[in-house]
Amino acid sequence: MGFVRLFDIRQPRRGGLGPGDLVALVTLAVLLYGGVHLALDAPRRIDGPDISLAPGALPWYASLSLARMAAAYLLSILFTFACGSLAASSRTAERFLLPALDVLQSVPILSFLPVVLLSFSAVLPQGVAAELASIVLIFTSQVWNLTFAWYQSLTTIPTELREASAIFRLGRWMRFRVLELPFAAITLLWNSMMSWAGGWFFLMAAEIFTVGERDFRLPGLGSYLKEAARQGDLSATLWGLGTLVLLITVLDQLVWRPLVAWADRFKLESVGGETPATSWALRAAKRSLAVDWLRNRIVRPMLERLDAALIARHSAEDRLDGGVTRRSRRLWLLGVGAGLLLAYGAVRAAMLLSLVPTAEWASLVPALAATLGRVLAALVIAVLWTVPVGVWIGSRPRVAAAMQPMVQVAASVPATALFPVLVSALLHMPGGLSAAAIGLMLLGTQWYLLFNVIAGTTAIPRDLQYTTALLQFGPVDRWRTLLLPALLPYLVTGALTAAGGAWNASIVAEYVEFGGQSVHTVGVGARIAEATAAGDYPLLLAATLTMVLTVVAFNRLLWRRLYRVAEARFRID
After folding, report:
1. How far apart are CA 328 and CA 429, in angstroms?
2. Are 555 and 511 in contact (CB under 8 A)?
3. How far apart are alpha carbons 343 and 526 in whole angstroms?
4. What stretches of 163-291 adopt beta strand conformation (E)?
């Protein structure tokens, strides 16, 4: 008897490259071409704001950075619920949305941050353009792992829960409220923490970006730390890092830990377990008269009115067959118009790519192979340490409560600030920057896996764990029949986003500015960084599309197949 039999066993659907991938790639090429075209009309000189290094300015800078993070996270959550639900509920939408997500999460946004900033500054006022670009950049660092985690949760809901929702005739909104959201709560929470950790890294990059004589700096923690490093002010650097760590700790105590303790009720288990996660802030909120008044007088009536309105709306939509027909006709016309626009944009993008010499195209092949090798090496190293450590943390609630803020702080410290120190230490080792790039990629990838493994371990029902103990399973049998099957959906989600993060990190790992000079190695990330620095837009588009095509093929041929296996064979039923 093996615990694999506790999972619903069906034949996985086949994965592979399809028409959705082609549409997504063409759409990306058109969007990038449009950004480049707008960037050519951007102002030649942009002056950034003065950044004060006085400690008294840090509360204001921290509030600005926090507001940008919150705005990007809100957009990420809305996008996650919309696209993830559509992909999980419609096979037709899944064929196009999942390739699009694969493409978008593999775009090296750091290389196209100049294009985004310049294109926004060409059509918007300077301050608005920089703020909007920073939120878009943070959004791209937060949204993909949330969307994939939400999709993974929806596709692995146990069959009996789906049947119960059908018996009670739950509509779309109530199914979301009472089934889908509670089932995915733990996964979404841990991925939200990971998204915020990754968001801090990209926030720092967005707040300090300059392109030639164009200064896109924004007042915030990132620009404060950058200015302190430029002036060599160690005291200001420590003040900035201390503020960042304090902000992350406060968010952990007042937001994430209460949410983790609250979500403990949504575990799928039929027996009592260990002491659940606790939070002093959650206990204080439950005892607060103000919170109780707010919940009973405002929150609960609003939710009841929202439930009634959405239930009535969805019921009316289901009865209007003619409305469905008209909506389908409008979507068809919209699709035709979008197809014509994509065809025109694809021709223009192809004309830009034709400017790239044949020798440059040929040089991308060994560069791509070198980067692929580093990505795989970083991924293997990350899996080797995050799986056992994540299982150890996730299976011990007290350890998870103690380690949660420390892991968040370690994942949130901007890795770019550590690159010069690591490069100076690793350049003298065998392999030079070529080997050091693997270590630098780890800084941007390992946390995706760790957070997903912790979430997966936390979600394993305790009755299954007790059964393995009663059957006296040894460590090997326990990993083979319980832990690895239960963790596979989370491992695939973590590995998929970690691989995307490694490709993105290759741009700053293979091309490092250190000691007043640029140090680089062979790799497609280095080619992208070089093209960005030189303003060589045709090569930039060619190298980026080459990387994206490789990542998409890898995702579709490997990760998507593993998703199918996890969905078909390792659903707890």
Report:
1. 61
2. no
3. 31
4. 210-211, 214-215
| pLDDT value at 224 more than 80 | yes
Q: State how far the Cα of 558 lies from the Cα of 539, in Å rounded to an integer.
A: 28
**pLDDT winner (highest mean) among 33-37, 80-84, 109-113:** 80-84
State the residue for tokens 């230490």.
425
Q: What is the pLDDT of residues 452-510, one digit of tens each?
A: 888 888 877 777 777 777 887 888 888 888 888 888 888 887 888 788 778 877 877 78
Tell me, what DSSP letter sits at residue 354?
T
Residue 144 CA to residue 147 CA, distance in Å, equals 5
Q: 214-215 and 210-211: which strand pairing?
A: antiparallel
* Phi-psi sector, 169: left (phi>0), alpha (psi -120 to 50), beta: left
Phi, psi at 295, each rounded to 5°: -70, -45
Q: For residues 61, 423, 381 and 453, what is the CA-based torsion angle, rounded to 10 degrees? A: -10
Three-class DSSP category at 497: helix
pLDDT tens, residue by residue, 97-135: 777 776 777 666 666 666 676 677 667 776 677 788 888
| DSSP structural state of residue 6 | G
3-class SS of residue 214: strand
Q: What is the DSSP letter of 7?
A: E
Of 129, 142, 160, 174, which is closest to residue 39 (Cα–Cα)? 129
Alpha helices in 208-320 (DSSP H): 221-231, 234-251, 257-263, 280-287, 289-294, 300-319
Q: What's the CA dihedral at 320, 322, 325, 331 to 10 degrees?
A: -70
Query: Which two tokens mark 11?
Result: 């034949």
Would the pTM count as exceeding 0.90?
Answer: no
Report CA 109 to chain centroid distance, whole Å: 12
CA 319 to chain centre: 38
Q: 10 Å Cβ neighbour count for 219?
A: 18
Residue with tokens 């403990």: 264
Domains in the chain (CATH in brackets) are 60-266+278-287+355-572 (1.10.3720.10)
Cα separation, 311 vs 322, in Å, equals: 20
